Amino acid sequence: MYAEPPYICVGSINMYRPVVLLSFFLLSVTSACQYNSQIKCELTNGTVVFLDSSSFCCDGQVLLKYLDGKQQCCCQDSIATEKQEVYDPEQHICCNGRKFPRQNTLGQQQACCESKVFVLTRSNLCCVPQPYEDHPTAVLYNSYVGENDTCCGNVKYDKNTKICCTDTSYNYTLYDNDPNKICCGRKYIPHATHVCKMNQKTGQATSMLKFISSCGNTDIDNRKDLCCNGHPHLNVVPISSYSCCGNGTYNINIHSCCNNAHAIPKNMECCGSNPNGYNSRTHRCCNGVSLEISRDSDQCCGGGIIDLETQNCCNGQTYDKSTFKICRDSNNRCSAARITDECCGWEALDHTSVCCKAGTNYDYQYFQTQKERSSQNKCCASYSKSSTEAKPYSDQTEECQRGLKPNVTKKLNQLRCGSTYYDQNTDLCCFNILYINATLHGQMCCQHNVFNPATQSCCKDNRVYNSTSCPRFCKSRQYSPVSQICCGGHVHANLPGRKCCGKQTFDPREQRCCGSKAVNKPKKCRKPNHPICKWLCEQDEKKIRRNIRTGKIDICKTNGYVARIGQKNNIRQVTRIQLEGGGFRLYNHNQNPFKVKKLFHHTCVCDKEPREEVRRKIVVITDKSIRDIKVELTDSDYILPYTNKVRKTLMKHWKERCATPTSLVTADVVDEIFDFIKVKLDKQRIARFYE
Fold first, then answer.
1. 196 φ, ψ (degrees, to nearest 5)
2. Nearest-CA neighbor of 640 among 515, 502, 538?
3. Domain range annotation of the chain
4. Rounded to two decimals, what is the model's pTM?
5. Using CA atoms, how far apart are residues 139 and 151, in angstroms rounded to an integer?
């Protein structure tokens, strides 16, 4: 029955967005009456009558707002000087004092555009500025009205190509639509470089550059100005070197800020309001005053300096250490006592009293209780910190039974297990755990447990097993040495004549164990006939890791190369360290780049029991570059076996110890050989290499 928003629109204010449409019922076109606020009515005969809430005045008559269930309204203009008419809002509309039928002769709905009436169709558009009472300039458009047309004040525009910006005074401006701009009051600003803010004084939206901000009553440029607690500082250049300290600025490169109040030279420390600070090596700050010292042991005591080697300080007072001692508690309360006195908390102990400690080891308080006998030298206090109930006693003849109410009893000639007395002829105490009648049954302690040696055993892990011998483990798996054999952490059946070879077993009558592999006779094992093989076999990995941790091996070198050893058959007695690839890639030591293909199948067999192969990488730690064809490593360089534990130790201590952590270099393989290096080892096992 009522009009849709596209037909009549009223401009509304928004700081950031264009105006939007409001329904036409904001105008006097709806069925609801707008009665005036008159309380009396002058009739046509000049008589004045008073109105109640159910009546209204129209054209010199007093009428009821509702008559026979139907509403009555008065049609008048805003000034109410023209002729007034009574109308039924269901049948008529009132357009600025003129009454029109709600439907025309064709049955079409009609609406007001100020004093004009028009048919509610998409071909008509009424644009009314807001507030329309102050701007009686509504415009009715009844031709060339597009589907996307709307109003900017009383002007029609296409919202797909234009945008309407308005301020709080209902002033409107049309702009061409730009996705990179936004409305800011009547202005259309680029949002990439500007911001829109509300001016608190004028109540209007104001645009400013993004690097402009307010500081007190002043706008500042954030690129070169600073705002410190509402105080602007202009042209602070270079601004990256300055910061605020209280209401002022300071150069962060040469000064530091004290308590957000004032700046001092950077090599100084804060001391009260002293603008120059103080040097902690030559001065002490005592109660906000910088005082010069003559010894490192000089410290503040109140407002002065004392020598802590010969003096003590308590509550700002100085005491000579040869005469007085200082008693303190956990709350740093203190008092001075003679050197021969004992302390009880923060007070000196009276020789007629004993010192009591009520509470637990973590929450307690000290107090004194008067002795009843001179032989009493201890205090039996409560577990409750707030309790002062305590009993003095002599630890030679008595003992304390602590509780909420402490009790002192005579000492008995018995042993105690924890806080319980026991008879060692019948009972057994294992780490303060009492086992009744355990001794009678022939049991013994196994750490906190008990066991019977006749049927059980107590093993190294302090566990009790129901057998007379302790079990054997192969890594974490239990096995029987009678029927099984453990080889390199793997359990096998203990067949007659078979022995371990690495993780497997072999028959010595038909096979040989070469390193960790069994080969059929008459094949022979290759020997560690190269110095690098012999050296690798002699290395103690635990000792190497310990030397890395203690710094005996200086790992802070420029380069760390991961390489494999190999042998070229047509070159005699030449061991090569071949870098695995041509294009070097640097990896940070805290990453995991160590996935290198097994390229060299030359194996160093270590001649020890159990025999094992050394087919592993090595780490060359040096300040030299092994990219060069000729390389000479000296006594200051290191070659270490490359194992998982050595790698972890290197990575950890590179990160903690070295200013610039060394990186490990690995690469993919190419066919050509880069380096041939002979090895010579001296007695200290330091590798010296030459071509």
1. -115, 125
2. 538
3. 8-32+89-176, 350-411, 420-465, 531-690
4. 0.35
5. 10
